[in-house]
Amino acid sequence: MLLETRDAPPFYKNGYVLACDQTREAIIIDPGDEVDELLRIVSGQRLHVRHILLTHAHIDHIFAMGAFADVEVVAAAAERPLFEHQLALEWDEDSIQGYNNIFPTFTEAQKTAKPFLPTIWVETQQVFGSPKNNVVFATTGGHTTGSSYVSFPSESVLVTGDLVQVDKYPYFGDETTDLTVWVDTLKSWYATNPARVCPGHGRVVDRDYLRLEWEYFENLVAALRTLKNDGVSMEDAVIHPSLPAGCWVDNCPEPRWFKHCIALTYSRL
Ligand SMILES: [Zn+2]
How would residue 10 be classed by pLDDT, with cut points 50, 70 and 90? Predict the structure, then answer.
């Protein structure tokens, strides 16, 4: 089995090629800014792409799906409203500028992107590939309502989408983010003792990173709950010194949406 990942600046969102080295049949996971490199792997290795698996509907994970012709596109049924919302957006100047504030490459990517609605909607889980080279697509929610992951049991590999974001500030500011589900998912993966965890953003890690991430979320929620009980305003809470340090690298710049994620979590307590 061949597993390749590529990313591209500025988000270093990972796209994956997963292929059987005998049949040359391939699966693409979350094609985005790095799609040219994924296409290079596909042609260089003479692969036939049969499916695109989308872990969730955030734009950086779906934008390049149109680069692959005649493939089935797979996503969680629970994520369908988010896909429909993305595809119904009018790309006027204001909305492009709004997205560009979050994704600086958006203006360029939007010109060529042809996202479309997935063709296979998975309720809980579905198996792809051959019986020997089994690839399981399963949905959990957490990061978004229909967040999903891909596992490759014979090599104990997990491709997690944004349920794992390595060395960077994690994004947990979607209206459908559910931190309780998210933490439970990380713990259940840890219990399966995966050999490799391939994240939505950042380097491939081992299972210890799962613990770092869920401990950050648990500590954050506990700190915010204390602040809420003390009657601290939202404005003060999002910058409060009692908030825990995260598992991102020291020199990681704080993205402009990070306080929004904290505020959303605070508002729900
Ligand atoms: Zn995301």
Answer: low
Q: Strands 15-19 and 148-152, how do they pair?
A: unpaired
Please tell me the distance between residue 56's alpha carbon and the centre of ligand 1 in angstroms. Answer: 7
Query: What range does the domain containing 25 cover?
Result: 2-208
Q: List beta partners, residue 51.
A: 27, 72
Locate tokens 């979050």: which residue?
A: 102
Distance from C-alpha of 157 to C-alpha of 145, rounded to nearest angstrom: 23
**Count of alpha carbons within 13 angstroms of residue 177, beta-carbon side:** 22
| Whether pTM exceeds 0.90 | yes
Structural domain contains residue 15: yes
Domain count, the chain: 1
220 Cα to the center of ligand 1, angstroms? 19
Q: Which burial class, exposed, middle or buried, applies to 112 when counting CB atoms under 10 A from its CB (0-12, 13-18, 19+)?
A: exposed
Supply the angle between the helices 208-229 and 179-191 in degrees, to the nearest 10.
150
Does the residue 90 lie in any domain?
yes
Centroid of ligand 1 to alpha carbon of 143 (angstroms): 7
- 248 located within any domain: no
Q: For residue range 106-151, what is the model confidence (pLDDT) as tens digits?
A: 777 666 677 889 999 999 999 997 777 789 999 999 999 999 999 9
User: Is residue 263 included in any domain, yes or no?
Assistant: no
pLDDT per residue as tens digits for the range 164-187: 999 999 999 999 999 999 999 999
The residue count for the chain:
269
Of 107, 13, 114, residue with least CA distance to 60: 13
State in Å: Cα 175 to ligand 1 middle.
12
